[in-house]
Amino acid sequence: MQDGAQYLATIDAGFNFNNIEKVCITAEVNSGTATHAIISVTSEPIEGSLPNTSMTYLPLQEVIPPTEENPIPSTKQLNLNFCDTSVLPSNLLDGESEFNLTINGGDLEFNNLQVSIEGSVGSEHIDSELYSASFGSNLSYPLTLENGQTLTSETDIGYQFESIESVCIKGEVQNGTASAFVIGSSSEAPNDVFRNTDVLAFILINENEFESCGVNGLTYNFLDGRSTMSITPSGGDITLWDLKIEVKGVLKKSQIRLSENEKSALTVPVAGGKLKYDMKIENLDSNQVSKTFRKWSVLKLPNGDIYPHRKAKLFEVNYNEPLSFSNKRINIPAWFEAGEYEIWWYLADAGNNERIVDHPKFVKEAE
Among 121, 143, 173, which residue terminates a domain? Predict the structure, then answer.
Protein backbone atom coordinates (compact mmCIF):
# COMPACT_ATOMS: atom_id res chain seq x y z
CA MET A 1 0.00 0.00 0.00
CA GLN A 2 1.32 3.43 -0.95
CA ASP A 3 1.72 6.34 1.45
CA GLY A 4 -1.38 8.56 1.55
CA ALA A 5 -3.56 6.43 -0.72
CA GLN A 6 -7.04 5.48 0.47
CA TYR A 7 -8.30 1.97 -0.18
CA LEU A 8 -11.94 0.85 -0.04
CA ALA A 9 -12.31 -2.63 1.43
CA THR A 10 -15.55 -4.62 1.19
CA ILE A 11 -16.73 -7.32 3.60
CA ASP A 12 -19.07 -10.15 2.61
CA ALA A 13 -19.61 -12.63 5.43
CA GLY A 14 -21.95 -14.79 3.34
CA PHE A 15 -24.82 -14.81 5.86
CA ASN A 16 -26.87 -12.57 8.11
CA PHE A 17 -26.46 -12.11 11.87
CA ASN A 18 -28.94 -11.96 14.73
CA ASN A 19 -26.51 -9.80 16.68
CA ILE A 20 -22.85 -8.79 16.49
CA GLU A 21 -20.82 -7.88 19.56
CA LYS A 22 -17.51 -6.99 17.91
CA VAL A 23 -15.81 -6.74 14.50
CA CYS A 24 -11.99 -6.82 14.34
CA ILE A 25 -9.69 -5.96 11.42
CA THR A 26 -6.15 -7.32 11.72
CA ALA A 27 -3.11 -7.59 9.44
CA GLU A 28 0.48 -8.78 9.86
CA VAL A 29 3.02 -6.28 8.53
CA ASN A 30 5.58 -7.77 6.14
CA SER A 31 7.63 -4.65 5.39
CA GLY A 32 7.39 -0.87 5.16
CA THR A 33 7.90 2.39 7.04
CA ALA A 34 4.34 3.66 7.61
CA THR A 35 3.82 5.42 10.94
CA HIS A 36 0.06 5.09 11.28
CA ALA A 37 -3.15 3.94 9.63
CA ILE A 38 -6.61 5.51 9.56
CA ILE A 39 -9.75 3.38 9.37
CA SER A 40 -13.01 5.19 8.60
CA VAL A 41 -16.46 3.60 8.68
CA THR A 42 -19.72 5.23 7.61
CA SER A 43 -22.96 4.03 9.16
CA GLU A 44 -25.59 2.74 6.77
CA PRO A 45 -28.57 5.15 6.85
CA ILE A 46 -31.88 3.81 8.05
CA GLU A 47 -35.21 5.17 6.80
CA GLY A 48 -33.55 8.12 5.08
CA SER A 49 -31.55 9.31 8.11
CA LEU A 50 -28.18 11.00 7.69
CA PRO A 51 -25.13 8.68 7.86
CA ASN A 52 -22.40 9.17 10.47
CA THR A 53 -18.68 8.56 9.86
CA SER A 54 -16.25 7.44 12.57
CA MET A 55 -12.47 7.60 12.11
CA THR A 56 -9.84 5.74 14.15
CA TYR A 57 -6.11 6.59 14.26
CA LEU A 58 -3.93 3.45 14.65
CA PRO A 59 -0.18 3.76 15.34
CA LEU A 60 2.00 1.40 13.28
CA GLN A 61 5.35 2.19 14.89
CA GLU A 62 6.62 1.90 18.45
CA VAL A 63 9.64 3.91 19.62
CA ILE A 64 12.22 1.78 21.43
CA PRO A 65 14.14 3.93 23.93
CA PRO A 66 17.96 3.86 23.98
CA THR A 67 19.88 1.48 26.25
CA GLU A 68 23.49 1.12 27.24
CA GLU A 69 23.98 -1.48 24.50
CA ASN A 70 22.02 0.57 21.92
CA PRO A 71 22.39 4.29 22.71
CA ILE A 72 20.43 5.34 19.60
CA PRO A 73 16.59 5.15 19.73
CA SER A 74 14.97 2.87 17.17
CA THR A 75 11.49 2.05 15.94
CA LYS A 76 9.55 -1.19 15.72
CA GLN A 77 6.86 -1.77 13.09
CA LEU A 78 3.51 -2.79 14.60
CA ASN A 79 0.81 -5.00 13.12
CA LEU A 80 -2.61 -3.56 12.31
CA ASN A 81 -5.16 -4.31 15.02
CA PHE A 82 -8.57 -2.61 15.14
CA CYS A 83 -11.84 -3.67 16.85
CA ASP A 84 -15.20 -1.91 16.61
CA THR A 85 -18.29 -2.45 18.78
CA SER A 86 -20.63 0.12 17.24
CA VAL A 87 -20.74 1.12 13.55
CA LEU A 88 -19.31 -1.99 11.80
CA PRO A 89 -21.35 -4.45 13.92
CA SER A 90 -24.52 -2.54 13.00
CA ASN A 91 -23.60 -2.36 9.31
CA LEU A 92 -22.73 -6.08 9.12
CA LEU A 93 -26.04 -7.42 10.47
CA ASP A 94 -27.00 -8.13 6.83
CA GLY A 95 -23.59 -9.75 6.22
CA GLU A 96 -22.13 -6.98 4.04
CA SER A 97 -20.27 -3.73 4.72
CA GLU A 98 -17.22 -1.70 3.74
CA PHE A 99 -14.53 0.52 5.27
CA ASN A 100 -11.76 2.85 4.10
CA LEU A 101 -8.12 2.20 5.01
CA THR A 102 -5.42 4.88 4.64
CA ILE A 103 -1.69 4.40 5.32
CA ASN A 104 0.44 7.45 6.22
CA GLY A 105 4.13 8.11 6.87
CA GLY A 106 5.44 5.62 4.33
CA ASP A 107 4.56 2.57 2.25
CA LEU A 108 3.46 -0.70 3.82
CA GLU A 109 3.04 -4.33 2.76
CA PHE A 110 0.65 -6.65 4.58
CA ASN A 111 0.89 -10.44 4.54
CA ASN A 112 -2.84 -10.85 5.14
CA LEU A 113 -5.76 -8.55 5.98
CA GLN A 114 -8.43 -10.39 7.97
CA VAL A 115 -11.87 -9.48 9.34
CA SER A 116 -13.27 -11.43 12.30
CA ILE A 117 -16.88 -11.14 13.46
CA GLU A 118 -18.04 -12.07 16.97
CA GLY A 119 -21.79 -12.64 17.03
CA SER A 120 -24.65 -15.10 16.46
CA VAL A 121 -25.66 -16.16 12.96
CA GLY A 122 -29.28 -16.07 11.83
CA SER A 123 -31.42 -15.35 8.82
CA GLU A 124 -33.73 -12.66 10.23
CA HIS A 125 -34.49 -10.70 13.38
CA ILE A 126 -37.92 -12.11 14.05
CA ASP A 127 -37.88 -11.36 17.81
CA SER A 128 -36.98 -7.69 17.50
CA GLU A 129 -39.60 -5.25 18.73
CA LEU A 130 -39.80 -1.49 19.18
CA TYR A 131 -39.58 0.19 22.60
CA SER A 132 -39.55 3.92 23.23
CA ALA A 133 -39.27 6.61 25.89
CA SER A 134 -39.01 10.39 25.93
CA PHE A 135 -35.52 11.85 26.25
CA GLY A 136 -34.72 12.62 29.90
CA SER A 137 -36.51 10.46 32.45
CA ASN A 138 -37.16 13.43 34.75
CA LEU A 139 -37.84 16.14 32.13
CA SER A 140 -41.23 17.67 31.34
CA TYR A 141 -42.49 18.72 27.91
CA PRO A 142 -42.89 21.08 26.09
CA LEU A 143 -39.13 21.58 26.48
CA THR A 144 -37.42 24.86 25.50
CA LEU A 145 -33.70 25.24 24.70
CA GLU A 146 -31.79 28.34 23.63
CA ASN A 147 -29.43 28.33 20.63
CA GLY A 148 -26.27 26.39 21.57
CA GLN A 149 -27.63 25.35 24.99
CA THR A 150 -26.61 21.79 25.85
CA LEU A 151 -28.88 19.67 28.02
CA THR A 152 -27.59 16.35 29.38
CA SER A 153 -29.94 13.77 30.86
CA GLU A 154 -30.43 10.02 31.26
CA THR A 155 -33.11 8.21 29.28
CA ASP A 156 -34.57 4.95 30.59
CA ILE A 157 -36.28 2.67 28.05
CA GLY A 158 -37.44 0.41 30.87
CA TYR A 159 -35.96 -2.91 29.69
CA GLN A 160 -32.61 -4.64 29.25
CA PHE A 161 -31.76 -5.94 25.78
CA GLU A 162 -30.05 -9.06 24.48
CA SER A 163 -29.28 -7.26 21.20
CA ILE A 164 -30.22 -3.98 19.50
CA GLU A 165 -30.72 -3.45 15.78
CA SER A 166 -31.23 0.31 15.75
CA VAL A 167 -31.76 3.41 17.86
CA CYS A 168 -33.89 6.22 16.42
CA ILE A 169 -34.25 9.79 17.66
CA LYS A 170 -37.47 11.55 16.68
CA GLY A 171 -38.32 15.14 17.59
CA GLU A 172 -41.59 17.04 17.28
CA VAL A 173 -41.10 20.82 17.18
CA GLN A 174 -43.63 23.22 18.68
CA ASN A 175 -41.83 26.40 17.59
CA GLY A 176 -38.40 28.00 17.23
CA THR A 177 -35.81 28.98 14.64
CA ALA A 178 -33.22 26.17 15.11
CA SER A 179 -32.16 24.52 11.85
CA ALA A 180 -30.49 21.42 13.27
CA PHE A 181 -30.06 19.29 16.37
CA VAL A 182 -26.80 17.83 17.71
CA ILE A 183 -26.86 14.56 19.71
CA GLY A 184 -23.89 13.54 21.89
CA SER A 185 -23.11 10.65 24.22
CA SER A 186 -20.17 8.90 25.88
CA SER A 187 -19.32 5.41 24.64
CA GLU A 188 -20.14 2.64 27.11
CA ALA A 189 -18.37 -0.09 25.15
CA PRO A 190 -16.09 -2.13 27.49
CA ASN A 191 -13.02 -1.72 25.25
CA ASP A 192 -13.38 2.09 25.08
CA VAL A 193 -11.14 3.28 27.92
CA PHE A 194 -11.44 6.98 27.11
CA ARG A 195 -15.25 7.30 27.39
CA ASN A 196 -15.16 10.70 25.69
CA THR A 197 -18.39 12.42 24.75
CA ASP A 198 -18.71 12.32 20.97
CA VAL A 199 -21.12 13.92 18.53
CA LEU A 200 -23.23 10.99 17.37
CA ALA A 201 -25.61 12.76 15.02
CA PHE A 202 -26.23 16.12 13.37
CA ILE A 203 -29.93 16.09 12.46
CA LEU A 204 -31.46 18.67 10.13
CA ILE A 205 -34.89 19.98 11.12
CA ASN A 206 -37.49 19.56 8.36
CA GLU A 207 -40.41 21.91 9.04
CA ASN A 208 -41.71 20.82 12.47
CA GLU A 209 -39.91 17.52 12.93
CA PHE A 210 -36.55 15.80 12.73
CA GLU A 211 -35.48 12.17 12.77
CA SER A 212 -32.36 10.02 12.67
CA CYS A 213 -32.22 6.22 12.81
CA GLY A 214 -28.49 5.93 12.12
CA VAL A 215 -27.25 6.64 15.66
CA ASN A 216 -25.18 3.47 15.83
CA GLY A 217 -23.06 4.69 18.74
CA LEU A 218 -26.10 4.23 21.00
CA THR A 219 -26.75 0.57 20.13
CA TYR A 220 -24.29 -0.58 22.81
CA ASN A 221 -25.19 2.15 25.33
CA PHE A 222 -28.85 1.11 25.50
CA LEU A 223 -28.23 -2.62 26.07
CA ASP A 224 -28.90 -2.04 29.79
CA GLY A 225 -31.91 0.10 28.89
CA ARG A 226 -30.37 3.37 30.06
CA SER A 227 -28.09 5.94 28.45
CA THR A 228 -26.97 9.47 29.26
CA MET A 229 -27.12 11.74 26.22
CA SER A 230 -26.75 15.43 25.43
CA ILE A 231 -28.88 17.49 23.04
CA THR A 232 -28.03 20.92 21.57
CA PRO A 233 -30.06 23.03 19.11
CA SER A 234 -28.11 24.81 16.38
CA GLY A 235 -29.07 27.94 14.45
CA GLY A 236 -31.66 29.23 16.90
CA ASP A 237 -33.85 28.41 19.88
CA ILE A 238 -36.39 25.58 19.92
CA THR A 239 -39.39 24.29 21.87
CA LEU A 240 -40.13 20.58 21.58
CA TRP A 241 -43.48 18.92 22.02
CA ASP A 242 -41.55 15.68 22.51
CA LEU A 243 -38.20 14.00 21.80
CA LYS A 244 -38.59 10.23 21.45
CA ILE A 245 -35.82 7.64 21.72
CA GLU A 246 -36.90 4.44 19.94
CA VAL A 247 -34.94 1.22 20.42
CA LYS A 248 -35.55 -1.81 18.20
CA GLY A 249 -34.12 -4.98 19.67
CA VAL A 250 -34.53 -8.29 21.47
CA LEU A 251 -35.25 -8.22 25.22
CA LYS A 252 -33.40 -10.35 27.75
CA LYS A 253 -35.48 -13.24 29.08
CA SER A 254 -34.99 -12.00 32.63
CA GLN A 255 -35.52 -8.40 33.70
CA ILE A 256 -34.77 -6.35 36.81
CA ARG A 257 -35.63 -2.66 36.91
CA LEU A 258 -35.22 -0.04 39.62
CA SER A 259 -37.06 3.26 39.41
CA GLU A 260 -37.62 6.41 41.39
CA ASN A 261 -40.32 6.16 44.04
CA GLU A 262 -43.08 8.69 43.42
CA LYS A 263 -42.90 9.79 47.08
CA SER A 264 -39.10 10.09 47.25
CA ALA A 265 -36.66 11.76 44.85
CA LEU A 266 -33.29 10.09 44.22
CA THR A 267 -31.47 12.46 46.58
CA VAL A 268 -30.35 12.20 50.21
CA PRO A 269 -29.84 15.29 52.42
CA VAL A 270 -26.56 16.23 54.10
CA ALA A 271 -27.75 14.73 57.39
CA GLY A 272 -28.34 11.36 55.71
CA GLY A 273 -31.60 9.43 55.63
CA LYS A 274 -33.55 6.68 53.93
CA LEU A 275 -33.69 6.54 50.14
CA LYS A 276 -36.85 4.95 48.74
CA TYR A 277 -37.11 3.31 45.32
CA ASP A 278 -39.24 0.75 43.46
CA MET A 279 -38.17 -2.54 41.86
CA LYS A 280 -39.73 -4.80 39.24
CA ILE A 281 -38.52 -8.30 38.27
CA GLU A 282 -39.89 -10.20 35.26
CA ASN A 283 -39.62 -13.65 33.71
CA LEU A 284 -40.11 -13.19 29.94
CA ASP A 285 -39.06 -16.72 28.98
CA SER A 286 -42.18 -18.39 27.51
CA ASN A 287 -40.42 -21.76 27.72
CA GLN A 288 -40.25 -21.59 31.52
CA VAL A 289 -43.50 -21.28 33.46
CA SER A 290 -41.51 -20.42 36.57
CA LYS A 291 -37.92 -19.32 37.15
CA THR A 292 -35.86 -19.38 40.32
CA PHE A 293 -33.65 -16.32 40.82
CA ARG A 294 -31.04 -15.06 43.27
CA LYS A 295 -30.88 -11.34 43.94
CA TRP A 296 -28.39 -9.32 45.94
CA SER A 297 -27.11 -5.76 45.98
CA VAL A 298 -24.12 -3.53 46.69
CA LEU A 299 -23.63 0.22 46.92
CA LYS A 300 -21.02 1.96 44.78
CA LEU A 301 -19.60 4.99 46.60
CA PRO A 302 -18.48 8.25 44.91
CA ASN A 303 -14.82 7.18 45.21
CA GLY A 304 -15.54 3.86 43.44
CA ASP A 305 -15.44 1.66 46.56
CA ILE A 306 -18.09 -1.06 46.94
CA TYR A 307 -20.20 -1.21 50.11
CA PRO A 308 -22.33 -4.34 50.86
CA HIS A 309 -26.08 -3.77 50.96
CA ARG A 310 -28.25 -6.93 50.76
CA LYS A 311 -27.24 -10.60 50.93
CA ALA A 312 -28.32 -13.10 48.25
CA LYS A 313 -31.90 -14.38 48.46
CA LEU A 314 -33.75 -17.04 46.41
CA PHE A 315 -37.27 -16.55 45.04
CA GLU A 316 -39.46 -17.59 42.09
CA VAL A 317 -41.14 -15.58 39.33
CA ASN A 318 -43.83 -16.93 37.00
CA TYR A 319 -43.79 -16.24 33.28
CA ASN A 320 -45.30 -12.85 32.36
CA GLU A 321 -46.28 -12.15 36.00
CA PRO A 322 -44.03 -9.28 37.13
CA LEU A 323 -42.92 -9.25 40.73
CA SER A 324 -43.04 -5.67 42.03
CA PHE A 325 -41.53 -4.20 45.19
CA SER A 326 -42.60 -0.73 46.32
CA ASN A 327 -40.82 1.49 48.82
CA LYS A 328 -37.54 -0.45 48.89
CA ARG A 329 -35.21 1.41 51.24
CA ILE A 330 -31.55 1.98 51.81
CA ASN A 331 -30.21 3.92 54.78
CA ILE A 332 -27.46 6.45 53.98
CA PRO A 333 -25.60 7.55 57.16
CA ALA A 334 -24.66 11.18 57.74
CA TRP A 335 -20.95 10.29 57.67
CA PHE A 336 -21.18 9.02 54.07
CA GLU A 337 -19.44 11.51 51.76
CA ALA A 338 -21.41 13.80 49.46
CA GLY A 339 -21.53 12.90 45.76
CA GLU A 340 -23.03 10.53 43.23
CA TYR A 341 -23.82 6.96 44.29
CA GLU A 342 -25.04 3.88 42.42
CA ILE A 343 -27.06 1.05 43.89
CA TRP A 344 -26.32 -2.19 42.03
CA TRP A 345 -28.99 -4.92 42.19
CA TYR A 346 -27.93 -8.24 40.65
CA LEU A 347 -30.36 -10.88 39.37
CA ALA A 348 -29.04 -14.38 38.60
CA ASP A 349 -30.98 -17.22 36.98
CA ALA A 350 -30.46 -20.16 39.35
CA GLY A 351 -30.79 -22.57 36.43
CA ASN A 352 -27.94 -21.30 34.26
CA ASN A 353 -26.37 -18.56 36.46
CA GLU A 354 -26.91 -15.90 33.79
CA ARG A 355 -26.75 -12.48 35.43
CA ILE A 356 -28.19 -9.09 34.73
CA VAL A 357 -27.86 -5.92 36.77
CA ASP A 358 -29.53 -2.55 37.14
CA HIS A 359 -27.74 0.35 38.80
CA PRO A 360 -29.58 3.68 39.01
CA LYS A 361 -27.77 6.70 40.40
CA PHE A 362 -28.64 8.96 43.33
CA VAL A 363 -26.95 11.92 45.00
CA LYS A 364 -26.09 12.69 48.60
CA GLU A 365 -26.15 16.45 48.92
CA ALA A 366 -23.16 18.50 50.08
CA GLU A 367 -23.27 21.16 52.80
Answer: 121
pLDDT at 198: 63
CA 313 – CA 265 distance, rounded (Å): 27
Lowest model confidence (mean pLDDT) among 50-54, 193-197, 297-301 = 193-197
Q: Mean pLDDT, the chain, as a whole number?
A: 85
Instruction: Report the percent of the chain where pLDDT is more than 70.
Output: 91
- DSSP assignment of 241-287 equals EEEEEEEEEEE-SEEEEEEEBTTB-SEE-TT-EEEEEEEEEEE--TT
Write down the pLDDT at residue 282: 94
Which of 147, 359, 153 lies closest to 243, judged by CA? 153
**Confidence band for 51, pLDDT divided at 50, 70 and 90:** low
How confident is the model at residue 314, as a pLDDT? 93
CATH at 200: 2.60.120.230
8 A C-beta contact, residue 266 and residue 360:
yes
The DSSP element (H or E) to which 81 belongs, if any, is strand 80-84
Does residue 136 sit in the same domain as residue 237? yes
For residue 301, the enclosing domain spans: 254-364
Burial string for 227-243 (b: 16+ CB within 10 Å, else e) reads bbbbbbbbeeebebeeb
